[in-house]
Design brief:
Residues 460-480 are annotated as: Disordered. The protein is an alpha+beta fold. Among the domains are: 5-124, Immunoglobulins (Immunoglobulin-like), CATH 2.60.40; 146-393, Alpha-Beta Barrel (TIM Barrel); 574-687, Sandwich (Immunoglobulin-like), CATH 2.60.40. It contains 16 helices and 32 strands.
Amino acid sequence: MTAVHVCAGRPAPLGVQDCHDGFNFSVFSRHAERVELLLFEEPTSDSPLAVIDLSAPEHRTGDVWHALVSGLRWGQAYSYRASGRWAPADGKRFDGSIELLDPRALAVRIDPCPTPGGHRHRSLLVDRSFDWQGATRPRRAWSETLIYETHVRGLTIDSGSGVAHRGTFLGIAEKLPYLRGLGVTAIELMPVQAFDDLHPTGRNPSGGHPLFNYWGYNPIALFAPHPRYASKLAPGSELCEFKTMVRELHRHGIEVILDIVFTHTAEGGERGPTFSLRGLDDSIYYLHGDAASNYLDYSGCGNTLNCNHPVVRDYILDCLRYWSADMQVDGFRFDLASILGRDEHGGLLSNAPLLERIAEDPVLRETKLIAEAWDAGGAYQVGSFAGSRWAEWNGCFRDDVRRFWRGDPGMAGAFAKRICGSPDLYSRNGKTPINSINFVASHDGFTLNDVVTYTTKRNLANGENNRDGPDTNYSVNDGIDGDSAAPQIERLRLRQIKNMLATLAISRGVPMLLGGDEFRRTQQGNNNPYCQDNAVSWYDWKLVERNAELVRFTQNVFEWRMRSPALSADAFYSSKEIQWFAPSGAEPEWQELMHAFGCVIHCPPYKAGESQADAGRTDAGALCLLFNASEAEIAFRLPVVAPYEWHLVMDTSLPTPMDILDAAEWPRTDATSGFTLSARALAMLCCGAVEPYSHVTL
């Protein structure tokens, strides 16, 4: 058994620091009456090798309890116990019998056999050193970013994924050739912070087997990667494997964005388990109602972090700095980010200190910040989230694009605004199109295949009697709910998927593609499969070959976006840059129930970052976009862009390979005299100096 030596230690920094002469342990608790540090020989040890009472004056400075311990090694485990008043009405929930995780643990061991009455999750001592081998951050501009949203486990856990390390961080690195082939420049990972995936959330009513949290929006340790995403069982392997994944993605020009949860934890409401924050200082870390025993719930998960309390604010900022500086993460998508702007009573602040601190923090200045600008308490701040540094998930883009292509009346004007970068939402307070993260599907809702396959959600397998998940999906089944063998239905569904993917590609703003939408991944109509760790959520890679036509289309349509800087510029169109027209050639009547219209985009004759004078060219090309969401073909009269002729490069109604130009081809069809566009279709034509170059180097 290891012999340990203890001395006073230091209060800062919080967490554990290797001080060469020992490990310094430091934890915050304002209201505890006694704190004990438990040290274990092995992470699985039944009993501690030492219990250090931090109640002596030399071990406490203000609200911080600390000790310097020598004689320990990497891989050993530790935890805390905090004793004090049990007075839930006052926000005091101290129980000296419960082992607590260090809120700043860099790695954790999750108890594989938790009991209803407790758990033995433990924090680990891990080496932070890593060889980055000279790999540096890609530092992509927003205007050249294509985000691919995915789940770590779901991406590669299926046996058909073709990777050696299925369901892990390393498995993602093995998918690099595929991601690069799509033109992806950033991968957005659903939560990787250690979360509780072992406490049942309910039971599947059809088989009675328990369901567990698969998505990961219930963190237990915000600084620690989820250990089950490592391929090895050795303590702390997840740190090295996470960094390896980041290094290899960076080496090939792909950034890493984390979907990060600072709004709530897995400790839930009144009857939830105690893992860490609740047992250390419930009244500081969480929002409470008139009676402190009542948790304010703006997350829909039972509790809400008190984000604008100074102590919690520093905790969140330190966590972001760690993931950015030590783990080399390039950006964050903040789950339910409106909560980060609520005060201690739950009110929305006009100038939230935490949001401003994150935006202005010097360590985070190059970090991409993305807000899910709403929460479960009714806040909806799309277009009005604080400051110009924050990009936002644009839920209006998703809804308006789906409704337009579904054929809803009166959507043409809103649709036109979305493809222009949503100026109605962002053309104020210094914001530009790159403040808009455009998407037509995300993890939260139907996949794109299911948007055109199901009219209503099918969530019975979640065990909540189909009450969970959004009821409004703006979806349409095109004739029959679910899979169909009818060729005409399948052709229409494929065309509608192409329409929405093409809309995503040609719209100003930052496109985000839901992983698997490019090969028609389905969740069988489940729009909230948070507890479905099975084929409902896993990627079926056989679909890549089965839907090779759509994969090819996706690759080419986003390559066209990269070839045409006008489509991804970080400014709104001026009246000289874009010209709208009805099929007749006249100006559109936006107030009419119009289902078809077009526009001409006059493109600069130079690449992004290059002036016209530098390019030495005076000729300008143009793109023509035609949209027909009606149920009949429509003849368009095309505007004249002298002295050029229009050439067709994309028509979603045509079969592959005629649906979109291949990278090495040149436009093939002269359509100067006019163009007839099939029902429910999108076309793109080009003329002049629009050439097949890319301003993105992969």
